[in-house]
């Protein structure tokens, strides 16, 4: 600007006055242009009081600090792996989930800890449960969630992950991401100055297992000391169960075909923790005996569909059917993280049986995630 008007309102009033409006158009233009060359004077007190103070948010990383340091100082926490937390913290989050679930079920509408907060949800992989549970849960507690689909960002292709992180954390209070490569969630957390929550990667799925743990506690009374038998592919669900077993003591068995075992380093980490009994076997019938929970998942996950036909051949004998559930015993519950391919990894009769807790398990995604977000935001 060439000048700052000492009293802008009076100058504009002059332009609007009857005398000014009666001028010829050319004269009026000259009059307005002349205003541009008025001498600069100090802003009036009234104008000064209306100045906007542009302070940097506490969540923005200063040039000399890492994003991790900023989060730590602000009491913010990422949720990337269950084993990042100790037993006390995990049980505290699960207790909080039960409390918040009870509030929502009671019809309580005044508990709005996320009021005024926004969450960016990055989906490299689509998902009904992950999107609806996060978006609905955040909304019910007063917040606003934004869906960013596979074509909205194309993280790592159209824009680098570190740039995405540093942009989104300046708009939002929390970032949830459902991705393929596990390194992408680690990079988001490294560069974002707001909490990053792992909505799933090819390596693990911590929010799902927190919901599963909540469901087991509701139906059995506790997770500690139970026997959980997973039947199927040694995938990201198994890795998360193993990471939970490194924190909370229970008996975990993965029954999978040879060549489809979970990651060896993750198995070893769980065993070295010395907290739980860990077994990897290729005999599902022996594995399920005495189980409190029999758990299954699709044999071909997203990104593996071209292997589906081959996997159906390899996984014969690993279907959870009525006969396998009988071996587990009359008190065994059936769980599945969904979506299920009925008639493939599990029969329709098992999913619809009275001891199936698949749908309470799905509902608990929302409640467990609400508690995770509250913990991550320090609320």
What can you tell me about this protein's structure?
- The chain is of the alpha/beta class.
- The chain is 44% helix and 12% strand.
- It contains 18 helices and 9 strands.
- The protein has helices spanning 8-16, 18-21, 25-35, 45-49, 67-74, 87-105, 128-140, 150-153, 161-168, 182-191, 206-220, 236-245, 264-273, 284-287, 308-314, 322-328, 348-351, 358-376, and strands at residues 118-123, 144-148, 174-178, 196-200, 227-231, 251-255, 277-281, 293-296, 333-336.
- α6 (87-105) packs across α11, α6 (87-105) packs across α18 (358-376) and α9 packs across α10.
- The two termini are 45 Å apart.
Give a quick set of tags describing it.
five-stranded parallel beta sheet, globular, four-stranded parallel beta sheet, disordered N terminus, 379 residues
Short précis:
This protein is of the alpha/beta class.
The count of helical stretches stands at: 18
Q: How many beta-strand elements?
A: 9
Give the low-pLDDT segments. Answer: 1-22, 28-64
Terminal CA distance reads 45 Å
Mean pLDDT: 87
Strand order of the largest sheet: 7-6-5-8-9
Envelope shape: globular
| Most strands sheet | 5 strands, parallel
| Rg of Cα set | 28 Å
Helix content: 40-55%
Helix and strand succession? HHHHHHEHEHHEHEHEHEHEHEHHEHH
β-sheet strand percentage:
5-15%
Structural class: alpha/beta
């Amino acid at each position: 600007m060439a000048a700052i008007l000492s009293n802008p309102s009076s100058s504009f009033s002059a332009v609007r006055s009857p005398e000014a409006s009666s001028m010829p158009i050319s004269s009026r233009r000259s009059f307005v242009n002349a205003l541009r060359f008025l001498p600069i004077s100090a802003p009036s007190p009234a104008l000064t009081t209306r100045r906007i103070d542009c302070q940097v948010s506490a969540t923005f990383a200063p040039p000399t600090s890492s994003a991790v340091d900023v989060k730590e100082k602000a009491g913010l926490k990422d949720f990337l792996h269950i084993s990042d937390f100790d037993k006390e913290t995990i049980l505290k989050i699960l207790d909080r989930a039960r409390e918040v679930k009870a509030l929502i079920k009671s019809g309580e509408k005044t508990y709005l800890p996320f009021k005024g907060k926004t969450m960016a949800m990055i989906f490299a992989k689509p998902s009904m449960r992950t999107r609806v549970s996060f978006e609905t849960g955040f909304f019910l507690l007063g917040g606003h969630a934004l869906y960013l689909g596979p074509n909205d960002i194309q993280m790592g292709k159209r824009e680098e992950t570190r740039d995405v992180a540093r942009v989104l954390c300046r708009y939002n209070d929390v970032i949830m991401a459902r991705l393929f490569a596990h390194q992408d969630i680690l990079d988001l957390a490294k560069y974002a100055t707001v909490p990053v929550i792992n909505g799933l990667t090819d390596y693990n799925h911590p929010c799902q297992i927190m919901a599963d743990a909540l469901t087991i506690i509701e139906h059995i009374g506790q997770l500690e000391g139970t026997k959980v038998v997973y039947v199927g592919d040694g995938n990201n669900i198994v890795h998360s169960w193993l990471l939970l077993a490194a924190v909370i003591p229970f008996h975990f068995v993965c029954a999978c075909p040879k060549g489809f075992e979970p990651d060896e380093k993750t198995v070893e980490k769980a065993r070295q923790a010395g907290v739980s009994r860990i077994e990897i076997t290729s005999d599902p019938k022996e594995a399920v005996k005495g189980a409190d929970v029999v758990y299954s998942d699709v044999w071909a996950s997203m990104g593996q569909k071209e292997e589906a036909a081959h996997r159906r051949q390899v996984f014969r004998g690993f279907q959870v059917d009525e006969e396998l559930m009988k071996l587990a015993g009359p008190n065994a519950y059936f769980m599945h993280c969904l979506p299920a391919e009925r008639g493939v990894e599990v029969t329709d009769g098992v999913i619809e049986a009275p001891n199936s807790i698949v749908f309470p398990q799905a509902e608990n995604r929302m409640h467990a995630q609400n508690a995770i977000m509250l913990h991550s935001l320090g609320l």
